[in-house]
Design a protein that fits this description.
Layout (H helix, E strand, L loop, with lengths): L19 E3 L33 H19 L13 H17 L3 E6 L7 E7 L5 E6 L1 H7 L5 H17 L11 H15 L5 H28 L3 H4 L1 H9 L6 H16 L21 E2 L1 H4 E4 L7 H13 L3 E2 L3 E5 L6 E2 L4 H17 L9
Parallel strand pairs: 4-6, 5-7
Antiparallel strand pairs: 1-4, 2-3, 3-8, 8-9
Length: 369
């Protein structure tokens, strides 16, 4: 990671809104130990010329059985490759299948799966395009609201929503040890501690940054305890009803909270990282943007660290060529090909995270303390 020689002064100008944010550096995230996929497959991709002589007949038979299932499903013309020896026959058929699938659906990719249950079975992957955006949910608005007596109905409803996003959806929290954001804030802390200040103004700036860092750390520790409490999930509906009765109730936020609650009830076990995997698309590539790097809670989109934080994130992503995104799998191991998740859950949750961040932005200021 690139280092900067000194801590920049506090930003006083207009800032972009928090939440879903286009990446200025066009690259991809990294995964801390986090929520893995539900995955029924663990894939490795090995060249067919490395297949042992004693098993190549099994590999060949399984592949062409799968190839026939895919042809039937996609209504492709039946082509024969009997005139080619192994593995050229497999390579030619696979190239034909991959091109045909891509022509029918530009967002689909055809791969050959080899795992503990399959030697060479075709599968079609469909990926949800996250738009090369950062899905960062600010926490400072919640911290301010929790401390404001007249805003308790809103604060408690947000606690239910944040608890769902943390406990069930599995979005990492910035103050949780080992999370990507925790590491970024640690780096910022080190820069503050190690920098030399040549003027009273610079020292005052550093003092303010230190104060903000202390606040975000202590607030993070306190809120993390709350977000781990299952009672906020159990009281979600009651908190929603209480917020509806407040004078400042916003209809748009009620609708958003209702949609999130409905999503939780429809997919009570689903996590946002269940279908984000690093073993499907170019699994040998280590320089990749992991899900936990572009989906996270963070402190604020309007604090003195904003510019430095996003510069660090973009510097990280510039080194990467692959982004791990939600991907569904359709495995052609039977005539009725096994269908993976259609990613409806992920599509809806990303949309609602956008709406949540838009609602929170006006609260992400010191005057709301």
């Amino acid at each position: 990671m690139a280092a900067t020689p000194a801590i920049p002064k506090l930003h006083r100008g207009t800032r972009p809104l928090a939440g879903r944010r286009s990446r200025t550096a066009q690259s991809c995230p990294e995964r801390t130990a986090g929520n893995g996929a539900n995955g029924f497959l663990k894939h490795t991709f090995r060249p067919f010329w490395a297949v042992a002589q004693r098993t190549y007949r099994q590999v060949e038979a399984e592949f062409f059985r799968s190839f026939a299932f895919l042809q039937n499903s996609y209504e492709l013309p039946v082509l024969q490759y009997d005139n080619l020896p192994f593995p050229q026959n497999v390579a030619a058929a696979y190239a034909e299948a991959a091109a045909a699938v891509k022509k029918l659906d530009a967002n689909a990719n055809c791969i050959i799966v080899r795992d503990e249950k399959h030697l060479a079975t075709l599968a079609v992957l469909k990926t949800y395009d996250t738009g090369r955006c950062l899905y960062y949910i600010p926490v400072r608005p919640l911290w301010h609201l929790v401390q404001t007596a007249e805003q308790q109905p809103l604060a408690e409803l947000l606690l239910s929503i944040y608890s769902y996003l943390y406990q069930v959806a599995g979005i990492p929290f910035y103050s949780e040890s080992g999370s990507y954001m925790d590491c970024q804030y640690d780096s910022l802390q080190n820069w503050i501690d190690e920098a030399e200040y040549d003027s009273v103004e610079d020292q005052a700036c550093a003092d303010e940054q230190t104060k903000e860092m202390d606040t975000l750390r202590s607030a993070g520790e306190g809120l993390l305890v709350l977000l781990r409490d299952r009672r906020w999930l159990d009281s979600w509906e009651a908190n929603l009803a209480a917020y509806r009765q407040t004078a400042g109730c916003r209809v748009d936020f009620v609708e958003l909270a209702e949609q999130l609650l409905a999503l939780y009830r429809a997919y009570p076990q689903n996590g946002l990282f269940d279908n984000i995997r690093d073993d499907l698309i170019e699994p040998e590539e280590n320089e990749r943007i992991r899900g936990e790097q572009y989906i996270s809670f963070y402190w604020s989109g309007n604090d003195c660290f904003y510019d430095m934080l996003f510069e660090m994130v973009n510097n990280d992503f510039q080194e990467c060529g692959i982004t791990d995104e939600p991907t569904s799998i359709r495995l052609f191991d039977t005539l009725q090909a096994t269908k993976g998740d259609d990613l409806a859950y992920e599509r809806k949750l990303f949309e609602l995270i956008d709406g949540l961040c838009e609602f929170l932005n006006p609260y992400d200021h010191d005057e709301h303390q």
